[in-house]
């Protein structure tokens, strides 16, 4: 192993400091309640003391409520898979997401969720995901052409990837429909993320909904405007279908047709809810993963060289769905970045009825919390957990990863329905951009901070250099 290889194998990407503690106690016991809320406002990742990265399970009582924090794969499986019907979404999660997504697939529960999942699953078949590969490729190539005009300049990788992934998503959703003002929608959704990007302190203590929250009025206005904009487009497309016009086979058309064979089509509100869900869940999460991936590669020259070797070997006419076969190391890099920087950094549920998990009694109302951030760096599950090592996802070593230890897309019945879509999109973007450019970081190291998604603390400025 060369000195360079050894250095890269021990490269530790940026992460926030960890509080030292002797046992997994509520963070208020060593921070105090006031300081706790200050830390939560700054970066919720910092409330996890170092002991949580070693201990698999902890029972806590915090602000008058019972919590079970688990990073044990068997217990996670019980709560989120085997006995998942006994666990509903937590109050805080729903308080943040329901006002925007309403009955969208990510937040719906019970029979509403089952009906929507059944109707939407055919939309994400391999055939349809593969069919969107050409659209992804076209948009990625167009963005590469635009970036070529910025060669030698410094750009915000955060802004570039947010714009690119939204362009791809809107093209797949609406086929560049002339009646849809994509620029206006982009401004609205980006502003919404700014004003409602994390739980309000009142949500953390489960204050009634009528208690005012800063930014809630503006967020409500933006949500209503976005719903009206998407709803108008859906109504126009439905009318075109009814009159026999030829329409594109994009997500909007597929949603309008969903459930019709079973005589259970989605309502107008359900279509709007799920279109906004796809935009929210499939836009920012993918953009964050791409941003982190390009940053980490800029810090690891040997890994970047291997990725460039793979993307250069991708045939120009390669189908997007086959890129993983052409880019096995790049695919492993993406999975490793998802481990280190999971876009959805926390999973939580609330027990409906009493239960027993791993010998521990769970009372009704107990909050079950799994920090994906902690799980993906847990010392009992990963070798060198904080290090960037894509090889851990390759060959025989990849087969040793414990089941339910890597959950970037969730798990069980609620696993992300668009996981294959996201992976395909990420590889397409990486292939088309890195075939044209290399990217070098020119700013301070970004720190991961937890909002609705895990995001970098800086715009991640990078210089574009033509190859």
UniProtKB/TrEMBL annotation:
Its cofactor is heme. PROSITE patterns: CYTOCHROME_P450. InterPro entries: Cyt_P450 (IPR001128), Cyt_P450_CS (IPR017972), Cyt_P450_E_grp-I (IPR002401), Cyt_P450_sf (IPR036396), Cytochrome_P450_monoxygenase (IPR050121). The keyword Phosphoprotein does not apply. Heme binds at residue 416. It holds the Pfam family p450. It comes from the Bacteria. SUPFAM superfamilies: Cytochrome P450. GO terms for molecular function: heme binding; iron ion binding; monooxygenase activity; oxidoreductase activity, acting on paired donors, with incorporation or reduction of molecular oxygen. Keywords: Heme, Iron, Metal-binding, Monooxygenase, Oxidoreductase. Belongs to the cytochrome P450 family. This is Cytochrome P450. It comes from Aquisalinus luteolus. The lineage of its organism: Bacteria, Pseudomonadati, Pseudomonadota, Alphaproteobacteria, Parvularculales.
């Amino acid at each position: 192993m060369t000195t360079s290889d050894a250095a890269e194998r021990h490269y530790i990407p940026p992460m926030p400091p960890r509080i030292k503690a002797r046992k997994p106690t509520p963070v208020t016991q060593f921070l105090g309640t006031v300081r706790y809320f200050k830390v939560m406002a700054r970066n919720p990742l910092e409330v996890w003391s170092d002991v949580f990265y070693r201990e698999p399970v902890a029972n806590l009582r915090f602000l008058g409520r019972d919590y079970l924090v688990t990073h044990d794969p068997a217990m996670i499986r019980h709560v989120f898979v085997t006995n998942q019907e006994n666990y509903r979404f937590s109050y805080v999660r729903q308080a943040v997401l329901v006002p925007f997504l309403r009955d969208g697939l990510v937040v719906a529960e019970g029979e509403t969720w089952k009906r929507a999942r059944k109707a939407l699953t055919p939309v994400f078949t391999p055939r349809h995901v593969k069919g969107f590969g050409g659209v992804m490729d076209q948009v990625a190539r167009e963005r590469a052409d635009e970036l070529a005009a910025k060669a030698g300049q410094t750009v915000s990788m955060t802004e570039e990837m947010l714009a690119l992934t939204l362009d791809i998503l809107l093209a797949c959703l609406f086929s560049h429909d002339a009646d849809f003002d994509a620029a206006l929608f982009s401004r609205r959704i980006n502003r919404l993320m700014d004003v409602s990007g994390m739980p309000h302190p009142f949500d953390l203590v489960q204050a009634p909904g009528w208690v005012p929250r800063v930014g809630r009025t503006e967020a409500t206005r933006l949500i209503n405007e976005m719903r009206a904009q998407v709803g108008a487009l859906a109504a126009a497309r439905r009318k075109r279908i009814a009159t026999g016009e030829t329409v594109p086979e994009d997500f909007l058309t597929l949603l309008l047709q969903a459930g019709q064979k079973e005589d259970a089509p989605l309502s107008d509100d359900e279509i709007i809810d799920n279109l906004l869900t796809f935009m929210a869940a499939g836009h920012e999460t993918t953009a964050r993963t791409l941003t982190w991936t390009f940053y980490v590669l800029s810090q690891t020259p040997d890994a970047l060289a291997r990725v460039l070797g793979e993307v250069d070997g991708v045939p120009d006419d390669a189908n997007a769905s086959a890129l993983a076969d052409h880019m096995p190391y790049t695919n492993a890099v993406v999975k490793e970045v998802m481990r280190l920087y999971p876009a959805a950094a926390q999973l939580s549920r609330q027990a409906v009825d009493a239960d027993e998990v791993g010998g521990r009694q769970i009372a009704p109302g107990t909050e079950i919390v799994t920090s994906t951030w902690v799980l993906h760096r847990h010392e009992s599950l990963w070798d060198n957990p904080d290090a960037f090592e894509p090889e851990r996802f390759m060959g025989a070593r990849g087969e040793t990863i414990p089941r339910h230890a890597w959950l970037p897309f969730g798990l069980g019945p609620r696993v992300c329905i668009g996981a294959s879509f996201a992976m395909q999109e990420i590889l397409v973007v990486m292939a088309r951009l890195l075939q044209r450019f290399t990217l070098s970081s020119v700013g301070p190291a970004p720190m991961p901070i937890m909002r609705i998604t895990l995001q970098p603390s800086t715009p991640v400025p990078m210089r574009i250099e033509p190859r």
